[in-house]
Design brief:
There is one protein chain. By secondary structure, this protein is mainly α. The chain is built from four helices and no strands. The radius of gyration is 30 Å and the shape is elongated. This is Insertion element IS150 protein InsJ-like helix-turn-helix domain-containing protein. GO terms for molecular function: sequence-specific DNA binding.
Length: 118
Amino acid sequence: MSGRKTDFEERLTIIEELIKHDVNYNWAVEKYHISYQQVYGWYQKYRKSGNDPESLRDRRGKAKPEEKWLEVDRLKAENRLLRAQLEKQEMEIAFAKKLTEIRNREVEKDSGTKPSKN
């Protein structure tokens, strides 16, 4: 059976029912029409988190709130910012060099090919 989309409330209900039925994954698959992998994954997350229901939330694409950042998270964010600034600065320098090179080429071309007035 293929999986289907579920929301947090439904996942929580499924896990609670799964536990009441002695963690019978096949029962949950048949009753809720979801895949075995989904039920198994949700239950594993639930157990690893110490039975915290928040572990069943879909947090893909959502950043951790800054007030919950660890020192490592702050340093990683600062590192990303500094790398981006450095890359921007390197691009600006490369652009300025290329612009100077093009202008010098145009000046040399103009000065070397002027027609004489004779």
